[in-house]
TrEMBL record:
PANTHER family: ARRESTIN DOMAIN-CONTAINING PROTEIN D, ZINC FINGER FYVE DOMAIN-CONTAINING PROTEIN 21. The keyword Zinc-finger applies. InterPro entries: FYVE-type_Zinc_Finger, ZFYVE21_C, ZFYVE21_C_sf, Znf_FYVE, Znf_FYVE-rel, Znf_FYVE_PHD, Znf_RING/FYVE/PHD. SUPFAM superfamilies: FYVE/PHD zinc finger. CDD domains: FYVE_ZF21. One of its GO terms (molecular function) is zinc ion binding. This is Zinc finger FYVE-type containing 21.
């Protein structure tokens, strides 16, 4: 039912055959759909044909699965502040085994469903907060642009999420600890992985 390539508009015929991208399902000519990339999220074991746009996202996902996913699931320690409270609690934050929840364990216990997260703001070391503070802001649920931060080390995160069954939006602030027990380097690596995951969710939200 598709007479032309949906990228370059080349007409399909006996010589110019049509192919479909295994990720988005659109029809392309061989030139516009020549890349073969792993697609584990759709259960393809071997690399499969994808269009250039989808191949780029799939390559980023494969890198994430190979490198950052384990970091998120292993977790890291943060001082967590809920809402406008001036008290923080030392908690271990990790991605659940089914990759659907952020699990926080300390004296309290929280499970935040990933699909309910609306915004993620990664805070980094550098300038005075509120003046020239370098940060990364990514919106998961809204159509906001993604803004990259600088090459400074991540030291915290502000997370906003919707409470299931209501329109209420909650906020949590995560701050990496200064002492050895909190392992600041590990916390920075976890935040970097979280930033990567957030970007992938944002970029593939329409995939």
């Amino acid at each position: 039912m598709c007479p032309r390539c949906m990228q370059c508009d080349t007409k399909f015929d006996f010589i110019t055959r049509k192919h479909h991208c295994r990720r988005c399902g659109k029809c392309f000519c061989d030139k516009c759909c020549s890349k073969k990339v792993p697609l584990p999220r759709m259960c393809f074991v071997d690399p499969v044909r994808q269009c250039a746009e989808c191949a780029l996202v799939s390559q980023k996902e494969t890198e994430f699965y190979d490198k950052q996913l384990k970091v998120l699931m292993n977790g890291a320690t943060f001082f967590v502040t809920l809402g406008t409270s001036d008290k923080s609690e030392l908690m271990v934050c990790r991605l659940s085994n089914n990759q659907r929840y952020l699990v926080l364990d300390g004296d309290s216990h929280y499970e935040i469903e990933i699909v309910q997260i609306s915004t993620v703001q990664i805070l980094t070391e550098g300038f005075t907060p509120g003046e020239k503070d370098i940060h990364t802001y990514t919106s998961l649920l809204e159509s906001q642009p993604v803004t990259e931060g600088g090459n400074t080390r991540a030291v915290g995160m502000i997370l906003q999420y919707k409470v299931p069954g209501s329109d209420e939006v909650m906020q949590m602030k995560f701050t990496a600890g200064e002492d050895f027990s909190c392992n600041k380097k590990l916390s920075a690596a976890w935040l970097a992985a979280m930033h990567k995951a957030t970007k992938l969710l944002y970029e593939s939200r329409d995939q």
